[in-house]
Specification:
By secondary structure, this protein is an alpha/beta fold. It has a single domain, classed as Alpha-Beta Barrel (TIM Barrel), CATH 3.20.20. 45% of the residues lie in helices and 12% in strands. The chain has 13 helices and eight strands. Strands 7-6-5-4-3-2-1-8 form an eight-stranded parallel sheet. Strand 1, helix 1 and strand 2 form a beta-alpha-beta unit. Helix 1 crosses helix 2, helix 4 packs parallel to helix 6 and helix 12 crosses helix 13. The protein is globular, with a radius of gyration of 18 Å. The model has no long low-confidence stretch (mean pLDDT 96).
């Protein structure tokens, strides 16, 4: 049986920019240290929260190399490599130096709106090209397509290096159905297939039902210590009562889009500039003020 990876909290790292809209490697380095000191379990580089769609090939390499250097092998690292051109993504997987990373997180192809059969063939092609284990990423709100539980199970059964899925559909019933199918599979329980929440707000409930093993989190960029402790406690103690201390704040993070919300919160905490790249824009002054008030209320600023 594979060693269990990707339990607990994995932070979906932002990509900090300076006032010239360039990658701020000094701030990125400090954020990596902040995550490690906060007790998160692994880091996810170049996911949706990283604004990877707006980064050039050279900038993506810069982010990867910066995180690799600062992390220095202390935490497992996952890198996001995905897209809607199957051949291009497969080529990227074959040609990118991925030493130091444990797995690839690959989003469902967006805009094209493929069928379930198209999704299956897309991910099988990527699995065949990838030198690392593959974690599927289902986020219909961004991609316009939902990979169904039956398709996920067929994929995982067909390729040993498809080891998990980040589920951000927001559909608890779908995630629970997937967990049932995985448990009933003749193959996947022995391979330790990972179902990872992609939604901070739903994670406590999903952990209570034991349907997921943790979360790839946006909130932990700003509050790694609190969120790691909370997620670990819920996972270990089914009787633990989750009080939802930061539920309001989590809602605010996504009210005007991600990562605009988390970058504003990092700015309020003095950890990064409040800068995103077009076509994203920063959150409204009204929401920024609400966030700041909530952080004062919690005694964190």
């Amino acid at each position: 049986m594979q060693k269990k990876l990707f339990c607990g909290v994995g932070t979906a790292l932002v990509t900090p920019f300076n006032k010239e809209q360039q990658i701020d490697t000094e701030t990125l380095s400090a954020l990596v240290e902040y995550q490690i000191n906060g007790g998160v379990d692994y880091l996810v580089v170049l996911g949706s929260t990283a604004e990877s769609a707006t980064l050039s090939t050279a900038e993506r390499r810069m982010v990867m190399d910066t995180v690799l250097s600062i992390n220095a092998g202390r935490l497992p690292l996952v890198v996001g490599i995905g897209g809607n051109n199957t051949a291009e993504v497969a080529h990227t997987l074959r040609t990118t130096k991925l030493d130091g990373f444990e797995a690839v997180l690959s989003v469902c192809p967006y805009y094209n709106k493929p069928s379930q059969r198209g999704l299956e063939l897309h991910f099988q092609t990527l699995a065949d090209a990838s030198p690392l284990p593959l974690i599927l990423y289902n986020v219909p709100g961004r991609t316009g397509v939902n990979i169904l539980p039956e398709t996920v199970v067929r994929l995982a059964q067909s390729r040993e290096n498809i080891i998990g899925i980040k589920e951000a559909s927001g559909n608890i019933e779908q995630i629970q159905h997937l967990a049932q199918l995985v448990a009933q599979s003749d193959i996947l329980p022995t391979r330790d297939f990972a179902i990872i929440s992609g939604d901070d707000a739903l994670t406590p409930k999903l952990l209570k039902t034991r349907d997921v093993r943790g979360v790839i989190s946006v909130l932990s960029n700003a509050l790694p210590g609190y969120w790691s402790e909370t997620i670990h406690t819920i996972a270990q103690d089914n009787n633990y009562h989750y009080y939802g201390r930061f539920d309001q704040l989590t809602d605010m993070l996504f009210r005007e889009g991600n990562p605009a919300g988390i970058k504003a919160l990092l700015n309020i905490m003095g950890l990064a500039e409040n800068i995103v790249r077009l076509p994203l824009t920063t959150i409204s002054e009204e929401l920024y003020a609400l966030m700041r008030t909530e952080m004062k209320k919690q005694g964190l600023i």
